[in-house]
Amino acid sequence: MKMHNFNSGPSILPREVLQEAAEAIYNFDTVGLSILEIGHRTEWFIHVIEEAKSLVKELLGLDDNFEVLFLHGGATTQFMQVPMNFLEASKGAAYCVNGIWGKKAITEAKLFGPVTIAGSSAGKNYTFIPKDVSIPENSSYLHFTSNNTVEGTQWHHFPKTDVPLVSDMSSDIFSRKMDFSTCSLIYAGAQKNVGIAGTTLVIIRKDFLEHKNAGIPAIMDYKNHIDGGSLLNTPPVFAIYVSLLTLRWIKKEGGLAEMEKRSLERSTFFYEALDQLPLFLPTVAKEDRSRMNAVFTIEDKGLENKFLEACTENGMVGIKGHRSIGGLRVSMYNALPMESLELLVKLMEQFSHQYTS
Amino acid sequence: MKMHNFNSGPSILPREVLQEAAEAIYNFDTVGLSILEIGHRTEWFIHVIEEAKSLVKELLGLDDNFEVLFLHGGATTQFMQVPMNFLEASKGAAYCVNGIWGKKAITEAKLFGPVTIAGSSAGKNYTFIPKDVSIPENSSYLHFTSNNTVEGTQWHHFPKTDVPLVSDMSSDIFSRKMDFSTCSLIYAGAQKNVGIAGTTLVIIRKDFLEHKNAGIPAIMDYKNHIDGGSLLNTPPVFAIYVSLLTLRWIKKEGGLAEMEKRSLERSTFFYEALDQLPLFLPTVAKEDRSRMNAVFTIEDKGLENKFLEACTENGMVGIKGHRSIGGLRVSMYNALPMESLELLVKLMEQFSHQYTS
Lengths: 357, 357
Prior knowledge:
2 copies of one chain form a homodimer. Chain A is an alpha/beta fold.
């Protein structure tokens, strides 16, 4: 049975990326060694990481004012690493709280200095994006989560502010065109749109680095990683290689313009279907709906479980909502074929027909 | 040309591990998804990580007094994470310095409290293991590096002490039988004997955890990772899977007894040859020679480069010494076939014959 992968992350990858990744395990780039066995300071791997860094900048339209790193540790490490490097205790930092990940980021930031909540939708279960942000003028930075994977909301424009903007783009990077140069720091766990679990992309404006705190553990200091060419310690070689393959694929398919076009097609198609099937209840403000993760429920929890069983029977995986909020979630990342969504919508229609009186 | 891989890490893996890893990218365990695409909270992956944790304990002969974690970040992160969790500022910690990695570990520890040097070979370029350790009685712990990958020395017995023992076993874990239960914490980057770059194995005695510091960033707190079943955040799924395949291979081949036997055969064979070829100069104390990494030089640097060229021409990679000390290094990890070593020794003999007057 062909599987349809709606996982929220780790998630679906382009078929050709999987093919190339598997081939490189047998023999990497005809060097006679597996990608799993090559040294990270060899010319071979230096080419991999340099091409990956360069493609990140090219695809996002960033110039040499930005540095690109592929780090260990996942975005959760960034929750700590960002304030450790950039939260000046005398100034504090501002955080928009639009979901559980943003909330976790605040808990870490508070270990390093005062935090101002610049906007929050916590009172309404994070079902909308609070757009009017109020930020103390001299904040070290404003942190926000551009797409809320768990709740299914998304900032469709970056917040407007004069303080440095720090964006957790883990679940929507490389899915749309934005003016990324307005951000001072962007981070993203790779396992949604840019590879597999095991590496985190970090992009930093060079002038922001001048505000970095001193006395940071070596491995947490962004400046050290930049000076070490993203090779401060042994990097996650294979994870970075899969990111390179994914970046090449994005470029070949037409870059962010094409990714955005497909993402709009997928999400429009899915939300239109959702709005026409009263059995399924969307949970977030319409204007803030995520193009990456559609979150909804069925009121009758018995029926919701039955629907999940029907998904499993039809080879559709990853539709169960995040364990913190339950419900249903359909993730529609760059590599998801329309065919998978069409089959899912067909199943939803059949199910709806069967169980709506 | 068949390649012979003497890399110090990332390093050679068993052929069947590579084969199985590549196959799992096409289709993992017949679930119809790639190992690169499965969710980390699925039953499938829970089985992977639980089997890996259980095999670690079985192979090392550890009971349920120990917890096993597979973390992000590499051993360098542990240089910081160990003192962050366990260095009590009022007590300080003791460190044996037998190589550049141990020295780096101290730099990080000092950020969290006072450090006593319990023994050091820094004055002699780390060419021996200082065995008489002198430790303040109430130290939080004694940290040592069991094998020095760069310099080619190894502790053939664990240091004797009453304070909790913390061991960086990145480059010799799973290569020999020891009483691992005398350690309170063991950590090891996976990319030598237990998989690929991208995950770090951490083993902690439960009673040691009771001494953990408070107020630690969530992602750095070992207790959080244990409570989260090594799934606190999205783990490096594929890297952990390769560790599982490697652990299965070690068990199937005969466990640590067999790994030790092979390691002794390899290192004895190589050092005997080295001692008979006066062109090549071993650099460390004979009694402290590492069974994992043999480090040596040729006095004439022009000839040393010529030898490296001859290695390359013969498909032998990874023999150049670490950039911090230069020279030559031959790494002989678990997966290295005797055939590779035999061919290397033959080349050394020919070279020696040609250039020794």
